[in-house]
Specification:
alpha+beta, Butyryl-CoA Dehydrogenase, subunit A, domain 3, 201 residues, binds zinc ion
Length: 201
Amino acid sequence: MTLVACKICGLVQRVGALAPGAQAVCPRCGAVVVEHKVNTLGRTAAFSLAALMFYLPANIYPILQMELYGAHSENTVLDGCVSLFQHGQRLVAVIVFLASLLIPFLKLLGLFYLVITTRFASRRRRLERTWIYRLIDVIGPWAMLDVFLLAILVALVKLGELATVRPGPGLFAFAAVVVLTILATTSFDPAQIWETPDERA
Ligand SMILES: [Zn+2]
């Protein structure tokens, strides 16, 4: 038995042990109060691994293919950063580098760390691990997508009249990384960090 407050209406209620896959619903407003998700760690690990597999092609293959007066050019994210840096846009270059290369990678590392420590029911640094989860959850969708779209938008606006801009294979890999990382983050149940092994059985 645990006391839980409904996140929607605030009603505090007692919830007993739930069967795997079962949900406890708030008697007042009908919102899901507690959910016993099945195999959350396995799912988080699988989505993170899949995201990691797309991370490499996302950075090796061009995200944009351009035709400009018959000249063909292909750009990876790193090319974009280097080019921005060389054109004096150093701050933008650093932001794009952090948001689309470094942070997504650190996020995946963080998820693997959470999965492994939770799997082995580590009791160490539980507060820090909860913070890592929160951080990953908060920066989740923002880190990559926005800056990335912005960069494309700038390219399109600047070159729209002169050039044909087409998405490259790297762009699809990038989208896969974004979506899979979000799925991995939502699959993870941070409450598991605080559960003792017998509670989770
Ligand atoms: Zn409620």
